[in-house]
Amino acid sequence: MLALLLLSSPLQAAFPGLDKITKDLKKVEDTTKTVGKVAKGATGLSLEEEIAIGDAVSLEIVGRFGGLWRDEAATQRVNLLGRALGRYALRQDLVWRFGILDSDTVNAFSAPGGRIFITRGLYQMAGTDDELAGVLAHEMIHIDRRHALRIIARGELLSGVSELVADNNADFAQYEQLIGDLSSFILEKGYDPESEYEADKRGRALAATTGFAPGGLRTALEALKSSGKAKEEKTFDTHPPIDERLKRLPKDAPPATPSS
Amino acid sequence: MNTRHFPRRNAAAIAAAFALLAGVAAIEKGATVFSKRNETSLRAEPSALAAAAGKAGFAEPLKIEEVRGAWLRVKAAKAKGWVFHGNVAEEKPTLPPPAGLTTVSASETDTVAAARPLAPAAEGFASRHDGEKAKADVEWLDAESAKVKGEAVDTWMRENQKGEYKQ
User: Fold this and answer.
1) How close A161 gets to chain B, by Cα (Å)?
2) pLDDT tens, position by position, B101-137
3) How many Å lie between the alpha carbon of B146 and the closest alpha carbon of chain A?
4) For chain B, how big is the Rg over CA atoms in Å?
5) Does A24 contact B120 at a Cβ distance shorter than 8 Å?
6) pTM, to two decimals
């Protein structure tokens, strides 16, 4: 867990890195202006602002889970499947990237800007491409529909994030607090149930559009339920109850290919 | 590339995929959808392998004149043709893709992916929080992701009849 730094002006002298950080924030602004990508998304955040937030949230996710599982074949597999899904995502402004957290727990997370993380436990449980695609598509929808960014825009975490990232006069402590709060939200509290059900519904459609069996996510959830792991601590604990998700998902036939 | 299993194509799964479209997207004759890419190819026939009939620009409105399975015959500002439903959106996209990204060539995203380091603000965030290991992991992830080239994804989709290559 990150300690949230609350800097004030007397601390600037004791914190020589502050100048660099201020310059970093200025770079974000300069980059934004230079490349002309100041167009704002539906939440009022530019892509550069979203990326500046998402990169730090990615660091938080990886840090809290003790690192990535650096298995090249598995990582390239999830990237291949995920990038295929990304062809038909709503947002084509993002570069989708997929990583596997080195954890036995079963869970998945998304960071603004296009990074998706699943745990090794979930990767190994979801054996088929269809199941994995169903899980990845669910997480991609959280980014595609800007669920995390909408929380920021609604002011539930912090108001005025645009100025924090793009304004070279911004107090970077606010940026720190935003990242800490948003990461805690994603990793501990989770999205509201309606966002999760929307991710299930639209994720199922995205997987089907890409050519994966629409029942992939359902099969993965059923496998998790029957494994008994669903009742263990930290198993999909940031998502609504599995029974409720299964109840809302169409009763698609399982994918034709067997789980390994 | 190791993907272990490829789903069998069966009519029921395809029909189910198309049927669920109706529950999510308003894709029907007379409706308007929008191009998601900088340059979306319109085809002379409802097939990814058919000849090009024209192009549509980013967020360009496309009037649906006919729906045939997963393909839509649409009218753009300066062209008519068939487009795979996954290449259009029911709502107007707000942010354009990286320059050059088209439905024909996805390789441009490889350049973008490889070129972009962590945002400067996030770099600073890592250095302030003993996040060097996490930073190294995220950079490794980005490098591994960049190894999966757009052309390889396209080849895999063709070989496994995914998306618009489904027959």
Assistant:
1) 13
2) 555 455 445 555 555 788 888 887 888 787 899 999 9
3) 8
4) 19
5) yes
6) 0.80
